[in-house]
Every structure is written in C-alpha cells, then in structure tokens.
Amino acid sequence: MTSTQWPRLRVDDWTATRDTLHMWLQIVGKVRMAHTPMVNHWWNTTLYVSPRGLTTSAVPYSEGVFDLEFDFVAHELRLRTSTGGSADVALEPRSVADFYGELMSTLAELGVPTSIRAVPNEVEPAIPFAEDRQHHSYDPAAAHAFWQQLIHADRVLGAYRAGFVGKSSPVHFFWGAMDLACTRFSGREAPPHPGGVPNCADWVMVESYCQELASCGFWPGGGQEGAFYAYAYPAPGGYQEQPVLPEGAFYSAELGEFLLPYEMVAVAEDPDRMVAEFLGSTYEAAARLAGWDRGALENGPGAAG
Length: 305
Fold this sequence. Notes:
The chain is an alpha+beta fold. It contains 7 helices and 12 strands. The protein folds into 2 domains: 121 residues; 158 residues, no CATH class. Helix content is 32%, strand content 21%. The strands form 2 sheets. Strands 1, 2, 3, 4, 5 and 6 form a 6-stranded antiparallel β-sheet that branches. The chain is globular and about 55 Å long. InterPro entries: DUF5996. Pfam families: DUF5996. It comes from Nonomuraea soli.
C-alpha cells in the first residue's frame, strides 16, 4: 500500500489548462524529434517523468547535448546545454503563439537553432503554433497535480515493465495524445495500421503499430479524472469480452480499449495494487488469446514483484 495520496483533478476543472499545456508539450516534443535520429515506434520523440515535471532527457546537437524540462514546481520550462548555457521560459497564462515564439528564439540564443513542423498532431482543429491564440490558460495548481498523477502512474507502470524480457518500450510520455505509456511486443509483425488519426500521416501510425503489441498507460481523459487504459493491436478475437480486474474496469467500444477510471484508483485502499491488477489482467487477456510465447517473454528479474 502506498502512503502518499493520489492527487485528485477533475478533467472539467482544468480542460483549458490541459489543452494549452498539450500544445506546449507538442512543441517541446517536436524540438526533441528534430534533433534525434529516428527510433522504432517514434521512441526518440517522447518525454519522461522527472523529479520536477517532464523532461526530454539529453538531446544531441552540434555542440554536445541539451535538454528541456517542464518544471511544474517553479513553473518554468528550463533549457540547459552541455556548454554551460541555460535559460527559462515562464509557464504562466500565455498563448501558444507566445510560448512558441519565445522558445524558438531562446533556443537560437543558446546556440541550438531549431526548425520544426509547427502544427500540432492528433488534434482537431490543428491550429499552427505561431497562430494559436485560442489556447492561453495555465493553472499552476492543476499542472502540478497532473504531474503528481504522472509520478504515481510512472511508478506502477515501471513495476509492470520489470517482469517482461521481450521487447518493451520505456515508460514514456507521448505528447501527441498526451499520455504516459508502456508497450509490450510479442515479437511478431502486425498488419498495417489503417491510420485515420486526426492531423497525423497514416505512415506515422503504420510505423507505430508495425509489430503485434499490448499497450497500456494513463491519460487525462476517459473518466471524470482521467483513466488508465489498455489495448492490443491487432486485437485478438474475443478480446473485448474478456473479464478483467479490478471490478469497475470496462471495455470502451468507442475508444477500442479497456479503461480503469482514475477516480476509482484514487479512493482505493491500495491504489498501486488496483492499477497493477488492471495492467496484468488486460495483458493476460491479449497475450493468451493471441498465443504469445509467454514462457520466453515473461521471465524477467522483476517478474515476481
């Protein structure tokens, strides 16, 4: 049982901040993507939970490495380079256009000039960053609470990842859909993804889903306070009818995935155990129905824990 209470944050109470922050996260994620070599499933583009917020980790550039970190304690985007340069961009009520302009100019001043495709992905409508004055909200308390939710989710997803020796993603934050995710792979190829994601080229999704997988994570949607999710691609026959744990988790035909509302987790006697049951049972359903070679894939050093 964890001693720290899981924070509460109703989606309806921070939607404006969430949508603005989503665009800021996309900008920073695209900066990382612009400077890193392509890695399978776009793993080179993701962010990671840090002791202060969300970070790119070290990103290569011509003079060494740099990083960008959303600091949800001091409410600044921190920029640092291995040559000793540093700067901050304030996280405060401001438009996406203003944030984008200051970040690009600050990177140039630090010797890290960057060009990105400055239009958001996986959202509709996709307003170019330089023109987006529609999104301009920032509630520091809400951003801090969301980061605290991610800390808890990152811990439980990390424990889940430890028991798998097959190909597995890190626990990482995808800025496209604004979710923290961990994905296990069977080792077999998957049929081409049909695409159709708003403002995202179909070939991007084909690369993301080129191998058979079972994915799970946390995102600030799908429930009154967000939700843990799990899905399989391709979904084996009978997957959506499978009983999963805990009681109250359900399959959303609209989203094509199992959901565990965060508000259930937050009031549970043992939130970590509840989420672990959800992650384990949904993976079990996918791997069993699809005939994964589980004996070879599940013998990791963390399997018992």
